[in-house]
Amino acid sequence: MNVKTRFAPSPTGFLHIGGLRTAFYNYLFARKQGGKMVLRIEDTDQQRYVEGAIESLLRTLAITGIIYEEGPFSVNGTLEQRGDHGPYIQSQRLAIYQKHAKELVESGKAYYCFCSSDRLAQLRYQQEIAKMPTKYDRHCLSLSKEEITKRLEQGESYVIRLLVPEGETSFEDVIRGRITIANQEVDDQVLLKSDGFPTYHLAVVVDDHYMGITHIIRGEEWISSVPKHVLLYRAFGWELPVFAHVPLILNEDRSKLSKRQGDVAVEDYLAKGYLPEALLNFIALLGFNPKGNQEIYSVSELTEEFALEKINKSGAIFNREKLDWMNGMYIRQLPEETYLEYCQKFTLSDFGVSQEKLQRIYHVEKERLVRFDEIPSKIQEYLIIPEYDVALLVWKKSDVLDAKKHMEALLRMCTDFPEATWEDLPLIEKAIWQYIESNEIPSGNVLWPLRVALSGAQHSSSPFELLWVCGKEESLQRLQCALQKVAASS
């Protein structure tokens, strides 16, 4: 079998995290099987179309590195055609859907419906009052051919509906097993709307068939639509594809992931400084666990391990803390040049300091950074020392006099540092430790007041890193201020 998957989003806004996972699963499966993934834009609901959504989608896929084989792509911001296969934009394929809808009417598998919106609204209201399922009552199914022809010739507005047969519809799902739904629960779904546009159900089946899609991998919210699609495949006499419906992504409280409880747009995460590689690694594991003892995977490793049978049925919790941890791990793996490029991209100004100082801050923060949008606030922590109480300079069971003694010694020692020491972080650290060890002093009695004097905070970078970043002049000035605080209180 020549495997072909597809990612088929609607251009109704941003690409959702769940949509990115769907695209990635299709991509991984196609790569694993040596097949192709198609990109198709499902824009038949023109009322929900959002300007710029397609361009945003293409930009996001390009950034994350999810490559599709056919479909629309962007050149200088304009949608172009690739080869002989695209662009796969449904609104440009209306004649195909109209032709197939009328073929179903001719074969008795669908029928014309002329009911007004007012009648349908009234029908729905009556069914809701009676606590009945809201379904079309087949009012137009009994129309004679002559009546239908007359109404069509008069230009009366119509839709085409699927004629759902009696019985039940079953299909196999790779993840969930065999699913059977009674046909009486399936509405005579509209296939072709009065404006000539197909509904999702007709368009998706026609496109998946003619595009040669062998495996449909999508979210579980589409399971209820599958019986309609299976009925359409059978009505056309087409072979069914393989279905695989992946679990929902849930908030911590197990509600469906939504913008009300945090960001859900992929672009929002990228704008905050989450790395594309970290996002892909994270979302791939939302419902799929290749190995129990591993969390960090390259795309090639995920491809090698990926199998639809390994995907869980139950919903996957979106754990922001885990994403932060994973992003931090990826940041630390970045080559230095790439890391610095990201830092510079997220540094909003030069903060009035030298590039050398900024570079030192970037270097020190690499081991602690979670997201790149933290960079501006991290820089501020080095540049602005907050007002602090003298008591903060005292380490645990020590006292102000002990802190004063070490601050004086440190000030003298740092003043005498050779210029080469100030340029070399390991040399600074070595010199401070020599003072501690040669005098047999508990390290906290020295390092704690030194760090507080340089940062003004209870939590900060190490005192060695602070000395290196601040440089000689700024470091000595901060130590002198701390010493004055201690002297004034002793």
CATH topology of the largest domain: Rossmann fold
Structural class: mainly alpha
Name of the top-level CATH class of the largest domain: Alpha Beta
Q: Mind telling me the CATH superfamily name of the largest domain?
A: HUPs
Q: How far apart lie the N and C ends? A: 84 Å
Q: How big a fraction of the residues is strand?
A: 5-15%
Structural shape: elongated
Backbone CA Rg: 32 Å
Low-confidence stretches: 71-86
Count of helices?
A: 19
What is the makeup of the main sheet?
Answer: 3 strands, antiparallel
Residues in helices, as a percent range: 40-55%
CATH architecture title of the largest domain? 3-Layer(aba) Sandwich
DSSP strand tally = 13
Give the strand line-up of the largest sheet: 5-6-9
Q: Mean pLDDT, nearest integer?
A: 91
The oligomeric state is single chain
Give the domain tally: 4
Pfam families: Anticodon_2, tRNA-synt_1c
Subunit structure: Monomer.
EC number: 6.1.1.17
GO biological process, one term: glutamyl-tRNA aminoacylation
